[in-house]
Amino acid sequence: MAGLEIRELECFLVLADELHFGRTGERLLVSQSRVSQLIGSLERRVGARLVSRTSRSVRLTPLGQTFRAALEPAYGALRAAVDEARDAARTIPGPLRIGFQGTADDHLLAAVTSFQDRHPGSSVEIAEIPLSDPFGPVHRGAVDAAVVLLPVEEDELVLGPVFSRQATRLVISTRHPLARRTEVSAEDLADVPLISAAEPAGEYWRRAHAPTTTPGGRPIPGGPAVSTLQEGVWLIAANRGGMLLCAPTATYHRRGDVVAVPVSGLPETALGLVWHRDHENARIRAFAAVVAERVP
């Protein structure tokens, strides 16, 4: 039957139980006139009367009784299928692979724990993403989603919750003259060779974190290119240059021979959860919701 409405079938089955239009409306949270409209519409689709109604009683016609007997098991199976699908969507079973560029701080780890508590059928696997390839693992499907240092401009990637917005940190050796400052300006970067991410990091992403000029137009010397954050930290300790990092990453890589100094005059850094548009699923969306809720 073209255009069959499930609401009509539900109304018919409730009316078959109640044999009263008013009580049927109460159960369905609709008016008595709406019940009449739904039953009338169903009868027109069938082409015959299913319900006999007088001023004193409501009963099923013989065809209505036959229709009810055939409809109830089919409707029950349909409801069971919907309930099963809903339960599956709530439990979201299966592994979720999350990549982290650098490290996962306490807030992110708390989000992972919260996600697993809410969805006990799921498990989170954590992988480190190279500094030089922030989006490659997502494109290749090596991880389902990744926490990366923004910006992200790839059309194929979805940017979910954005968090950890803080002043940029200049991480330099304690031997560098700027290390004694409590804050440096963006113009001071002209005195620091900036270590950058090696290929295949995109040019726009590299330049966002290792700019070649200050906001005032002064050239910033280029430092070595590295594939991992650890390589960069080693070079910083050797006083070969500095790196512009977000506060959580700078804090994680704290050591006695390097220092992280806030930088004024630059946009705040931010982390974001990204995933591939073609690979989106319920687990990713559920994890993104937890991150948005739990990570400041």
TrEMBL record:
InterPro entries, A to Z: LysR_HTH_N, LysR_subst-bd, WH-like_DNA-bd_sf, WH_DNA-bd_sf
Keyword Metal-binding assigned: no
Domain HTH lysR-type: 4-61
DNA-binding keyword on record: yes
Alphabetically ordered keywords of this record: DNA-binding, Transcription, Transcription regulation
Family membership: Belongs to the LysR transcriptional regulatory family.
PANTHER family in the record: HCA OPERON TRANSCRIPTIONAL ACTIVATOR HCAR, TRANSCRIPTIONAL DUAL REGULATOR HCAR-RELATED
Record-given protein name: LysR family transcriptional regulator
Species of the source: Pseudonocardia adelaidensis
